[in-house]
Fold this protein.
Amino acid sequence: MYPKVVSIKTKTSLEGTLAETQERYSAQLSRLQNRVTGLEAQLSQLYANIASNKQEYDMLLDLKPGWSWKSQSTGGCWMGRMKVVTKVITVVQTVVDGKVIESSKTVDVDVDEIE
């Protein structure tokens, strides 16, 4: 058997096709890597928000107003001062191509005591 001879024109065409394929796959890989990086940033921000929310939730659980329970003979109702805590959390994120490029958070807390 004789080795197959490939013409210069065919070789040049195949090399061109290979180069185009490599460029396409490189561009596609780059886009996928950018997407993954963006998703990682969003996931990181989500974890930070969850940790912050847990901390705020724990803080609210620590608010122990002076409540006491009256006996059933008096109707079984809560007595004492109560605190009503209203908390508004606003998160604003700027997302470009799946990446969070800017994020801000404001927390407004209002505490009212009810006798």
User: Anything to note?
Assistant: The mean pLDDT is 80. Residues 69 and 78 are 5 Å apart (CA to CA). The longest strand covers residues 99-114.
